[in-house]
Amino acid sequence: MSDTIEKLTGALGDFLKKAKEVGAQAVETVDRNGVVREAYERGTERTKTYAKIAKQSLELNRESEELRKVYTEIGRLYVEQNGAEATGFFAPLCAQAAATAEKIRNLEDEIRALRESVMPEGAEKDIEVEIGAFDDVVSADEDAARGE
Q1: Alpha-carbon gap, residue 49 to 66, rounded angstroms
Q2: Distance from C-alpha of 55 to C-alpha of 52, rounded to nearest angstrom
Q3: What is the DSSP string of 129-147?
Q4: How many C-beta neighbours within 10 Å does residue 77 have?
Q5: What is the pLDDT of residues 5-15, one digit of tens each?
Q6: Residue ranges of the domains in the chain?
Q7: How far apart are CA 118 and CA 109, in angstroms?
Q8: pLDDT, tens digit, for every residue of 53-111?
Q9: What is the pLDDT of residue 141?
Q10: How far is CA 126 from CA 115, 118, 123, 129, 131, in A?
Q11: What is the pTM for the complete model shown?
């Protein structure tokens, strides 16, 4: 999400920079009679073009992120359905996914054991820590940022 915000900030910063450049060029192109119509029209068109570039850049980033999510889901479903029987170049990737999933389960077990050692059954809790799926947390934050 921070990558998207950085891209947005950069695109808008570029837009403002170009708009200032166009405005400065318009002032510089005033002829002896003080007519700036041509420079104004050229500057207006360029500013509109830069705004469209910024808007389309944001749309491109949004669509790229959506495609990444789709690819991730395809991979997750493939591993769930074919992980054990994967062949070709999928085999090492599925093995890596299985090993990582096993590490995650082991870490969750260790955390659970540590919690139980600190907080015996029936004791009053002084703090609650929730471990959520990273992608779920990030997706929820991105959705909230978009107002969804």
Answers
A1: 25
A2: 5
A3: -----HHHHHHHHHHHHHT
A4: 10
A5: 777 777 777 77
A6: 1-82, 86-148
A7: 14
A8: 999 999 999 999 999 999 999 998 998 898 888 889 899 999 999 999 999 999 999 99
A9: 65
A10: 12, 11, 9, 10, 17
A11: 0.48
